[in-house]
Amino acid sequence: MAEPLVLTSVEGATATLILNRPARHNSLVPELLEELSEAIDSLDTHALSCLVLAANGRSFSTGGDVAGFADLPRGQRRIYADRLVGLLNTVILQLIDCPVPVIARVQGPVTGGSCALVFASDLVAFGPRAFVQSYYVDVGFAPDGGWTALLPERIGVTRASAIQMLNRRIGADEALALGLATRLVAEADLDATIADWTTTLAGKVRGSLVATRALLTPPARRLVLADALERERQRFLSLIETDETEAGMARFLGRAA
């Protein structure tokens, strides 16, 4: 049997979900997102104090697998994109709806749609190699993964716009300054940082943690986020089979003539 694409563990009041596609830099494919969504659902029966998102390998996740899109003929590509972005939006909303704090452990690149896992987290530990980058304007995709739905809320529309329009890389130091990272630590100290946070949260009153997170995302805000994510999906689909995007993918993959 193939190794799971998402590893799940629950220890005490802490659940940990680990992206497990390291040979492909944990790039997002429908099968991985399906497993991630199912894993989040499976945690409903546990009285948790927090959920940790982590990843195996040198990269946290490099977002959608561009080669996976480019290798599909038109028609099939749109169907694949619809499934992928739809699943990603489902996962984002599951994280937004998570009753307890979400922690992200980021040891390397987190790019494209996978940045949603950081944008939707409450506490984010960055290693020194970690960075955030969109790549959409270079590849030819429309932003997904909350780049327009979540990031402007975190850092402001003007900053979010400039970062995406220029495809500017946000290194670990700047991520900390912008508030995208909660703490920047040596890579060897990432696990200790996560353990410190999970231990601290386990000592808090769970009902208060749940109330705090729920109040931070009232129904009206969630509706706005869900609508914005759906607009991202629709715009993504409108571009995925254009000549311009096909040429952009070829350039990005080094396949341009």
The CATH superfamily is identified as 2-enoyl-CoA Hydratase, Chain A, domain 1
Remind me, CATH topology?
2-enoyl-CoA Hydratase, Chain A, domain 1
How does the helix and strand content classify structurally?
A: alpha/beta
Unreliable segments of 5+ consecutive residues: none
What is the mean predicted local confidence, pLDDT? 97
Helix count? 12
Query: What spatial form do the alpha-carbon principal axes imply?
Result: globular
Q: Measure the end-to-end span.
A: 39 Å
Strand order of the largest sheet: 1-2-3-4-6-9
Residues in β-strands, percent: 5-15%
Under the CATH scheme, which architecture would be assigned? Alpha-Beta Complex
InterPro entries: ClpP/crotonase-like_dom_sf, ECH/Chromodomain_protein, Enoyl-CoA_hydra/iso
Subcellular location: Peroxisome
Protein name: Enoyl-CoA hydratase/isomerase family protein
Main location: other
Features:
Enoyl-CoA hydratase/isomerase family protein, 2-enoyl-CoA Hydratase, Chain A, domain 1, 6-stranded mixed β-sheet, peroxisome, single chain, ClpP/crotonase-like_dom_sf, 48% helix, delta(3)-delta(2)-enoyl-CoA isomerase activity, alpha/beta, Enoyl-CoA_hydra/iso, 3-stranded mixed β-sheet
